[in-house]
Amino acid sequence: LLLIAATRWGLKAGGGILEDLQASTGFDTLEISADDDLNQSALLVGKYLTPKLYLQYAMRLFEETDVLSLRYQLSPSLQLEAESGTSQGLDLIYQIERD
Q1: Strand ordering across the sheet containing 78-84
Q2: Do 18 and 30 contact (CB within 8 A), yes or no?
Q3: From CA 34, how far away is CA 32, in angstroms rounded?
């Protein structure tokens, strides 16, 4: 509960410590993700290697599993995502945006 409260209070969206760290390290993403299930909380670190290629590392805070994912934008509505952790996967994601 404390992690969720801290995340909602400022570590994730405010002008907090993680935002300062992100600015000084050059990462595009540096945040703590916390859902209702505390065991799924993770520190996310991500960087765009090119405008279409994004690399993200998720380090679980309460489990000993880490996830490395790579996302490549094939077209405006199609992306390819590969993930490696306790299991490996490859997804082709088609997205349609509506107003």
Answers
A1: 29-33, 42-50, 53-60, 66-75, 78-84, 88-94
A2: yes
A3: 6
Q: Concatenated DSSP letters for 30-72?
A: EEEE--SSGGG-EEEEEEEEETTEEEEEEEESSSS-EEEEEEE
Coil, helix or strand at residue 7: helix
Per-residue pLDDT tens digits for 22-71: 667 778 888 878 766 667 788 889 999 999 999 999 988 878 889 999 99
**Global pTM value:** 0.73
CB 3 within 8 A of CB 38: yes
